[in-house]
Amino acid sequence: MGTWQYGAVVDNAHRHNSPMCKMVRGIEAKNLPIRVETLAHFAPLPATIVNAEEPENQVKNARTAAAVLDAQVTTKLVSSNNISYFSPPSKLSKLNQAETTFNKQIESDPVDPFSEDELESSANTSNQPSTSAGTERLVVKESNIKKIFVDSIYNDNRTIYQSGSATSPDMNELIPELQNKLTEQARSAASDVGLLKNVCPSITPVSLEITTNLKQAYEDPDDIGHGHRRADFLTILDQPEGDVLMQDLFQRAKSQAETEAPQEPESREIYLRNHGNCVGVIGQAGIGKTTLTKMFTKVVLDESILQHDYIFYIPIRNVNFETTQPNLQPKNVLEFLVTSSGCELAHTEESDKEILKRLESNPNVVLVLDGLDEAPIDWSKHSPKVSMYKSATAEAFLKNLLNGKIFPQARKIVTSRPRQFHDMHEDYKPEFIVNIMGLKKESQKSLCRKLCGSDSEKVLGYLGNHPSLFAYCYVPVNCIITMYCIQRSLQEYVSASLDSITSILAFALERFRRTPHIREVAPSWSRFGAFRSLCRLAWNGFRNRQIIFDEDDLREVHIDKEMLNAFLRTDINIENEGDFRLRIFDGDKRSYFSHLIWHEMFVAVEIMLFMPLDEFRAQMPNFALNRWENVTKFMYGISNAKTMVYLRTIFLKKRETPVDPAEKKNLLNYFALQCLPALMENDSTPALLRVFDWANECQNMELRNAITEKLPREIRIRGTLHSNDVSNLTYIFQATNKPHIIKAGFGFSMVRFRVEESSRCFFQKIEETLTMKPNLKLTVLKVIGSEISEAGMESLCRCLNNVEDLVIFPSNLTFYHVQMLAVALRRLAIPKTSVSLTFNDDAEQGARALASCMDCMERLNIRFSEISSEGYAAMSQAIQTRERPMKQLNFRGNVISERGALALSSCLSNVDSINFEGNEICGPGAEHIAAAIQSRDHPVELLKLSRNRISDRGGIAISNCVRNVHRLQLLGCSLTFVGVSSIARSVQQLENPIELLELSANVLGDQGVLSLTSCLAKVKTLLLVNCSITPAHAKTLADALRLLDQPMKNLDLGFNQIGDEGMEAMSTCLNNIELLNVAHCGMTTIGVQSLCTAVDQLSNHSIKLVLDMNDICNNGAEILSSSLNNIKRLSLWRCGITESGAVWLSDGLDSLEFPMEELNLSENQFNNSGAIAISRSLKKVKSLYISSCGVTSTGALELGKELLLLNEPMERLKLNGNKIGDEGGRALSTCLSKVKSLDITQCGINEEGSKAMAASIKSFPFDASGVIGLYAQ
């Protein structure tokens, strides 16, 4: 009897319908007994089966034996001479063919293929118990069974089972055979692109963009992988630009490993070997990870990159992970790799060892592992080391290959979705990771021309008019489906109905339904049943965060094997020409939707067409969650009447209706309207745009009008906008008849466009909307970071009538752009409040163009532009002739130098605020500026010359004009005591105190500090940060401060090492300082003691103290706790305070008569215990900052309880950077009415916490504008 040591348990779905099992049942049905011993010739069976003696158990045991044997023979047959044969799971397709043959043969004639002369009496069979009298028992000969299985399963004209004295394979023949088969299989896999069929060979591949920038991939790994999120739009939709080429992947991995490897020789060698030869590829579903592996495999096979001797291309979804029984596991790693690659190989145990030795020492082994996220294993758990020569599970072999314990020199490229990759154990996660960004616009258009031929321009034109469709085309599968459907709809004159991505998918499904295959192969009841079952399966998977389905999942929704093979898993040629094929469902041992977009689409169909109304209502709080973004959008799309027509023909029988469609539509409208107030108060542009997107997707006029009725008078927009966002905005704006003010950017926030196409779309759409709706006023327009075309600038210029604040910081502003802007400004009746520009191309001509409209603006900000002295002269002359002074002139970051300063000096008498920071102005230039200001008849509000090397020469010149300056900033101007002394003397002579004097980052010296003491009475705010002030200098300043009649508002001595001695000196003058900043000054508890002693003696005011980054620790906190009565604001950021220090501070707060205005304890690791202690004193502090303090859900829970007890809400609570999670989010959601501003960014709050927060915001009328970070997470 042959020795059977190899085998693998196959898919349960095939086990009891296999040839072996059906043969046993067929023989049994004809009363033809079969001996269990005969079956045992195929593999070792459990003794309880083989040795059963009760006749009544033999039939049952035969069935069991057949099931066990079937799992083994589908993978491998071994003869009596120990020659094995690897066979991949793909051989199951031959089993399916064999089933039909066996059934027909057994049903037609019980003796065929077991002829009469092949049967013998059971009485002649040894070791069989006798049966009842008169009963003849027959058995099937062992040799015939073997022949049947060998011929039916492996009918490929090869001699697999060999008898007699066959010899072991010749290694000189076996190695080349293995290499050829691996190469052939890899080349076959690389040639299958999955969607394009007949036209594929003629299409030149378009490029996928690859980047090493993984910031986006790790912002929220739980949501990434569900494609088409708005976050994806902002990073890759506009213009994905990769920073690494496919052929350079391993070179970049090696370079990174060499940089990061430890220096110790042995450790360095191991690190380089493990991490320099492995590349991780991540990306959302359908983005092209598998396509990249196939492209990579192809170029390797073409010898364009990487010399290779062996290449294993392994789709992880085809790996058999169910072999947990030792006798069914792969015998060694060679079997695992060969069978998982889809190859077959005759071999022996000796040949296995020889091949493995060669593979281990060969650096030219390439492993391509596609889809690690599809493996049904826990990647977060460590797997012990296994021997490559011994049997182990597929999981163990795979993990040992990834961590380099097996084949450490092999080159490995692995793919996964980001969330699953993020959860991997560090031992298996590659160090060098790239992100697939998809197709950039040029590739999308190129693919369209190749797919649509002569219709390509029409298709591209249609997409240009429908940005919501174009927005999805960066994902290859979406690009192909969208362009195909648009082309067909244009040919059939039904394009008017394809105005949303939902309608595109519905159109594709309807074409799928109309194919001959579906009409002929699948009867009506089967077709409707299959689609509905698929909806239920999609919903179950989405609800359970499941993307791979096993037999039990399919059985639960009544999807059987015939339905899969004949319908769902089949490639369907949509058109007779066979130029496009659509596959919705896929898989072999495990099943899955071919692309996530189909999964989410079918989830939406299940919810809208079949879900009971009560369950629909229960799910509504989830609709605004990030993971639901696409599903919710599809739900709104399905509520569109035209789209519903398509879907009813696919999912519903005649006269069958959806479940409560009108009520669900009304609930969706209600949900969108309920989201608006919180979103607009929260100033969350992305979330607001999402609601507008829902309205645009469903094209529901009722919802559109209802949204416009709820819009506030002032609409604020900020952040990155895509063309799709612009389309959604204008869709809503064009429906309103109320007066609204639109601010595209506000404060320091701006609107950003990543590419010219988006900015052009924005300006053109806004122009169109403002023309159509005179009731809309665009008052603020701040644009940054994108190119603007000439057409876009023309549209922008036509939108300026009501713009008060204009900021344009694109990357390509030219003279022609500036000239157009100048012409537009001159035509305006009212001057603009502010104009800010950056331009580099022909800057002199641009400056001259601006000079022609200098009367048309109140503030001019030109930053980082290469303007010549002639350009400055032109603008200076125009400013000089203005009737009214210009309020602000800001040339920060431009090169002005001496000539430019001279040119500008003539206009400074007509400017109220001057910012010439970082302009490479030296002493002579400062002299020109000072002379101009000195001659003014009224003071300037601000003169800022920081970061210019004006030196003492410039300082002396500036001292002559101090009387005409309210705020003077000279940070980092290379001043010494000479220049400082001159300025101090001038300040001392002022009639009224100067508001601000900044001399930071200048070396004052003893004389400089001494000179300042003479003018302290004439300075309200003095900034001396990083001026090398010593304890002796501090004493000098303190002596002068004690003599002041009025307290100084702000004295900033930060980053000067005055230490405890200097702090003791400063403590003597606290009565004459309102705010003292001594951050990072080398103070310890000794200095704190001196400070608190002085604070306790304050009589005329409470002080504000900034003690950040000093070594205060818990002892200092204890000292401070007794002096809090006279401290209005206290900042102890990063002061080494732990739990006990927090307790002391809490006790001090409890003793206060009036609440402290602000307490900052951020970045002190006092964890939950400290947070709980502080929380008990919340009523005694108006604003509390405890960012990044190690607080978890436990601390958040106590904070929430204490907040609920407050009579008046806190002004602000900052918790950002603490991992409070969903539980903490839920706890805080109950007390949002007790805090006006809550910062919970980067707190690990996911779906459940966000839901609770959102529900709480809607439950009470208060200003939710301070709930920062809720919608960002």
UniProtKB/TrEMBL annotation:
Keyword ATP-binding: yes
Domain of life: Eukaryota
Coiled-coil portions: none
Keyword terms of this UniProt record: ATP-binding, Leucine-rich repeat, Nucleotide-binding, Repeat
One of the Pfam families matching this protein, by short name: LRR_6
Domain NACHT: residue ranges: 277-418
Annotated region described as Disordered, given as residue ranges: 104-137
InterPro entries membership: Leu-rich_rpt (IPR001611), LRR_dom_sf (IPR032675), NACHT_NTPase (IPR007111), NLR (IPR051261), NOD1/2_WH (IPR041075), P-loop_NTPase (IPR027417)
Listed Polar residues bias regions: 121-134
Segments crossing the lipid bilayer: none
Protein name from the UniProt record: NACHT domain-containing protein
